[in-house]
User: What shape does this take?
Amino acid sequence: MTFTEERFENAVLEVFRDTLGYAYAYGPDVVRDYSEPLYIDELLPALQRINPKLPEAAINEAVYKLRNFEGGSFEQKNKDFMDYLQNGVSVNFFNGKEQDSALVKLVDYENTDRNTFTVANQWTITENSEKRPDVIVFLNGIPVVVIELKSPSREETDASEAYRQLKNYMHEIPSLFVYNAFLVMSDLGITKAGTITADEGRFMEWKTKDGSYENTQYAQFDTFIEGMFDKARLLDIIGNFIS
Assistant: This one.
């Protein structure tokens, strides 16, 4: 049976949903502004849940800063974003009586279940042109991972083609990649991850689900996904191993 890109995409989504317990969103079913990379309907409730003692004004200021980075390349904006993601967003706000300040956390690294993990497909982004990356992983409404898949059944199509597609997306919809922790490319047989500034040769495999063994010479895509995207492990990778 031919393993088409659609079947490959569905298999990947199934691992996220059924094995890892992620929520699922089908892009066309979500009413939203296509020029907005953030999943606002998940972002606001998540920040309120993670920062229960902070007033709405502080949360709103954090969202404003998250949506409005100062000038510079998207790579520089991404660097600033990663500081927010790992360390929180410093905000100044009016508490009803006077100006106040606080640190708004975007992620609860200590309590995995207080975060929202969602996988989405067919998620349209409109900027220089309209694009729909294969799969996006949202952490608290933030698109921290973009996954590009290529079917091994198509001639002259492989993981390298997925890498080229990701680079094309960075040119056409750069605002999405401001919020990117890492990228994933896969052709079923080879699945690798890297950052937005890494060339293809620096993308790396993840060959184990639990750290106890390697699954063949090349990691199977489900081993890769279960290994990197276990909720607690994903938080560990984002919080401690990306600079």
Remarks:
- The chain has two domains: 5-39+112-240, 43-104.
- Helices lie at 5-19, 40-50, 56-67, 74-87, 159-172, 174-177, 221-229, 231-240.
- Residues 135 and 153 are 19 Å apart (CA to CA).
